[in-house]
Amino acid sequence: MRGKKILISVCRWSGAQALNELLRTAVALASGYRGHQVEVVLLGEGVLTAVKPHKDGWMRYYRAARAYPVPIHVQKESLERLGLKPEDLAIEVKLASQEELLELGRRAELQLNL
Question: What is d(CA 78, CA 16) in angstroms, rounded to the nearest whole number?
Fold first, then answer.
């Protein structure tokens, strides 16, 4: 059996460990027995998840996410609304418009909202 196309979306920030938990979840789904195709979307306050965390430990999950690969998309409008630029983020992201994010949602077989 092949893996599913899974979209993980984060629309609110949930603290200093948020990036660590998000990346760990994405890697677990991508590296499991079926090897799901995982993509991550950060929108609204969820964009703050990608700001460099104060705690260490997230970098190993980020390297693993890049190895599988797990693309991380950020809604352009949310980034601008928060007064941030892509270089303000701790991780490499793909900027996406609302329409592009809707298309990602349509293609996904499963969606996980954090």
Answer: 19
Taking only the tens place, the pLDDT of each residue in 41-51 is 999 999 999 98
Number of H helices and E strands in the chain, helices first, is: 4, 5
pTM: 0.92
Token readout for 64 is 């693993």
CB 40 within 8 A of CB 73: yes
> DSSP assignment, residue 33?
T
Q: Which of 38, 25, 45, 34 is nearest to 1 (CA)?
A: 34
Summarize pLDDT for 15-42 with one digit per residue, the tens: 878 898 999 999 999 998 888 999 999 9
